[in-house]
UniProtKB/TrEMBL annotation:
Protein's UniProt name: Glyoxalase-like domain protein
Domain VOC: 10-131
InterPro entries: Glyas_Bleomycin-R_OHBP_Dase (IPR029068), Glyoxalase_6 (IPR041581), VOC_core (IPR037523)
Stored Pfam families: Glyoxalase_6
Top-level division of the source organism's lineage: Bacteria
Family annotation (CDD domains): VOC
């Protein structure tokens, strides 16, 4: 991996806290494609740690937390902490698939916007964004 001048390092993965790491990895695999729990020398796979190597090269990691408390979008008292924007060609088809996989719509505004807001099965917000 090459590093940019002045940088300290590079992002290896994005880690999401959750109650069931493998279940959430499978959810995101259904949305993004990729391989769940592919061996990788950067980390070990355990009951409380699961990964998703996506086709784009991004790695998402899922870390089990016993007392997991989900964010409540857009409530600032339980902030979203982060969210993913997922580019899609067909917003309606992507929404149908996300809901089939267990996502919950957080968007009650409707209309012809170019993005929609959802929560994954454990409450992390994410957006489907028309490319």
């Amino acid at each position: 991996m090459s590093e940019h001048v002045g940088s300290v390092g590079s992002v290896q993965c994005v880690v999401l806290d959750c109650p069931d790491p493998r279940a959430l990895a499978r959810f995101y695999s259904g949305l993004l494609g990729g391989e769940v729990d592919r061996p990788d020398p950067r980390w070990s796979l355990e009951d409380e740690w699961s990964t998703l190597h996506t086709p784009s090269g991004l790695v998402l990691a899922f870390q089990g937390v016993g007392d997991y408390r989900p964010p409540r979008w857009p409530d600032p008292s339980a902030p979203q902490q982060f969210h993913l924007d997922i580019g899609v060609h067909d917003l309606d088809a992507a929404e149908a698939r996300a809901l089939e996989l267990g996502a919950v719509s957080l968007d009650d505004r409707g209309g012809a916007r170019s993005w929609r807001v959802y929560a994954d099965p454990v409450g992390h917000p994410f957006c489907l964004v028309r490319e």
